[in-house]
Amino acid sequence: MDKTTKQQKSPAKKAPLTQNLRSENSWDNTCGFESFGFKKNILRGIQEAGFSEPSPIQQEAIPIILDGLDVIAQAQTGTGKTAAFGLPLINNLKHNGEIEVLIVTPTRELAMQVGDEIFKLGKYGKVRTVSLFGGQPIRRQLELLEKRPQIIIATPGRLLDHLRNERLKNFSPSVVVLDESDEMLDMGFLDDIEEIFTYLSNARQTLLFSATMPTPIKHLAQKILNNPKLIKVTPEDATNQDISQRYYIINESEREDAIVRLIDSEIPSKAIIFTRMKKEADILSERLLSRGYKAGALHGDMEQRERVKSINAFKDSSINILVATDIAARGLDISGVSHVFNFHIPLNPESYVHRIGRTGRAGKKGIAITLATPLEFKEIRRIKENTKASIELYEIPSIQDTMDKQDSNLLDKILKHPISDDALRIYEQIRSHTDITQLVCKLLSMVLQDSKVLGPNKIGLDKKDLKNLQIQLENGGRKKPTINNRKNERSERKNKNKNGSKENKHPRFQKSSKENDWNFQESHKESSKKSQSKNQRNTRKTSNQNFKSKNTKNPSRK
């Protein structure tokens, strides 16, 4: 591809954005996917993927994309946006042997995730996809490209590498999708995106999906989109009603004990724990492993092979706890995640919605738990106001409460477990000469021998502190909440001082034997005497110095 070709394909400035904003409440949730007019093989893929009713973003975006119009869609992760652009694109494929669709994602994990979902949805439509990202051998990617895929999913860096080195022949996709555009901006890919569009034809449909709409993204949209339709999922739509959202107030030093206690109490089938830093993800996953939990880490500093290994282990339940950073888990879509834990409160409401969107999918219930300190009340309120979510304040369970819940869960599993023929056979053999009560107790002892609840009995606020905290929250959080009975500790120290504590031996704080009061007068007299004697010494010293200096200046005077 020479420079002249490249210049001819550079994007001309498009018409300004029009405010074709569709109403978020205009969609009818009783309408299924059949109403979009999808082909039968597409509907079969939708049914097999577990979709029943279109989400708000799907209901809004699919008809517009099917009509071939450009789109700006502002929607959070977890709202079904991949299917919102994926289904109409698969339905409109011409199968002409060319690359028809390009999807650009910020991370390799999201590229793999989108590729997997597109493949599943187009399973019966003979759809071929290829994911291009760093960490893979280029030769292997070229071999896959020779098989003529209809859809390419790529990260900006590796895609530009292929384009600059002219490895993509006759590359002119009719549809281009930018997924997680704001994330690409945060990661510094904006210049790369603009360069990518210099290699593309102007005769294309462009779809831009973003959780937020900062000014640089708006400027990019004006350059690359042609009179786009604007779609926005409101915060009310962004938070999933199937997710129970809670937060717990703890001391900063209690985070690890709190997360372990909550794992023991909640007994998640699959859980993602979000940390702010990569180092935290490593440390926490290692400590969970050392305590016997099946845990693994996922963050950007890991080798590609290790990251894929962690994701696959989480998918096949080799591990059931994944400790991850925001960037690494961006767009991660794994079925069966029952719990999401925020080890630290997210930095912004958008990040909160992205995180909790990992659970409560495909109509299943999920639980999102956030750990926060008293100083983070404002952040909790900000998330509530922005997402319009109901986030309830809870108390971290005690050791006994946790054990009771574990016992109840174990009994429930035992009662629901089917009785096998082998179990019946053994029972018939031993029932005549075995005490069944002793047998049951011994079996339970075997099961429970490794299920110990560790850590301090009390973590975070107790019920009394929680009640005070709720009152303070209603009053705007003006007073700092008390944790671990700080007021009681201060009053105890004060009482010790009044009773003549050994720590206070200075005369100012000694009690008078004649009066039941602090003997400030005696100490004041004593300190006054000391200050007077000190002033007298300073006066004599100053006069001596003045006398010496005069003699030095006038040596003839004696």
Automatic annotation (TrEMBL):
Residues 486-529 have a biased composition (Basic and acidic residues). SUPFAM superfamilies: P-loop containing nucleoside triphosphate hydrolases (SSF52540). The keyword NADP does not apply. Residues 1-26, 473-558 are annotated as: Disordered. Residues 62-231 form the Helicase ATP-binding domain. Pfam families: DEAD, Helicase_C. SMART domains: DEXDc (SM00487), HELICc (SM00490). GO terms for cellular component: cytosol. PANTHER family: ATP-DEPENDENT RNA HELICASE DBPA, ATP-DEPENDENT RNA HELICASE RHLE-RELATED. This is ATP-dependent helicase. The lineage of its organism: Bacteria, Pseudomonadati, Campylobacterota, Epsilonproteobacteria, Campylobacterales.
